[in-house]
From TrEMBL:
Similarity comment text for this entry: Belongs to the aspartate/ornithine carbamoyltransferase superfamily. OTCase family.
Name this protein carries in UniProt: Ornithine carbamoyltransferase
EC identifiers of the protein: 2.1.3.3
Organism this protein belongs to: Duganella radicis
Entry keyword Ion transport: no
PROSITE patterns: CARBAMOYLTRANSFERASE
Domain of life from the UniProt record: Bacteria
Residues reported to bind carbamoyl phosphate: 56-59, 83, 107, 134-137, 260-261, 288
Residues reported in the UniProt entry to bind L-ornithine: 165, 220, 224-225
Reactions catalysed: carbamoyl phosphate + L-ornithine = L-citrulline + phosphate + H(+)
Amino acid sequence: PIQKPIKHYLQFSDLTLDEYEYVIERARIIKRKFKNYEIYHPMIDRTLVMVFDKNSTRTRLSFEAGMHQLGGAAIYLNTRDSQLGRGEPVEDAGQVMSRMCDIIMVRTFGQDIIERFAANSRVPVINGLTNEHHPCQVFADIFTYIEHRGSITGKTVAWVGDANNMLYSWLQAAEVFGFHVNVSTPHGYEMDMSLVSTDRFTLFANPADACEGAHLVNTDVWTSMGYEEENAARLKAFDGWIVDSAKMARAAPDALFMHCLPAHRGEEVSADVIDGPQSVVWDEAENRLHIQKALIEYLLLGRI
Ligand code: CP
Ligand code: NVA
């Protein structure tokens, strides 16, 4: 039976540690089934609708392939050729879409948009990235960390770069999982403290200092989707914020490097780091598939 009341996944803090531990265990099992070519079809006759207001490679592919692998169907809609692009209210879209499908993923601009959509939806809504949050990516990243190094609780994660959706989701994850984030953002691109509800972080003026002793070094594009007109100014302001081998040398000897991708070698990360032995970027990308399949299963079927 489908879970009632419905549960959305709009930001990382929407699930408890206990729920994360359950879904991660399911992701392990679902991943193993996939690797073994074992058919697992709990979503027969169920449909996922994916609404994209921004570009995507990984998010679209992982949700679409994932729903297919679970025995269901996935439908891709974008702003350009749906009525959303011609001004149909997001509230109306939530009402209509949720009467025709079982679960919805939305990638859009402001978090308020996905919240208004979800408030009008009869089915679970998953955040596939907003300006403020990217919870599915950080969920996959935590799963990736655990696979490589075991528990992340008590560890130190360095964030070197823009105060963006990824950082805000990492900070929420720090509160849920109990780890610390060393944050270094360039002058003028600091965190919006109204989006931060944890004290599990330390600010560093020097990005290399933020990496000192870190178990995981994390960065992301300097210009996120929707901020393209700031690109030239950002390139100047972020000078010195590249994650290179000198910064990785400050981290713990067995530190991992993560980047949610897409990456820009020579800007936020050097080629030798992202293509080097500490980098787990391909595992992060792959784990989007397994984590989101487990998340869909959990949001629709609960604990099975
Ligand atoms: N990391 C991530 O969400 O990638 P896409 O923008 O390609 O979906
Ligand atoms: N911070 C980036 C992540 C891309 C997956 C963006 O929002 O564009």
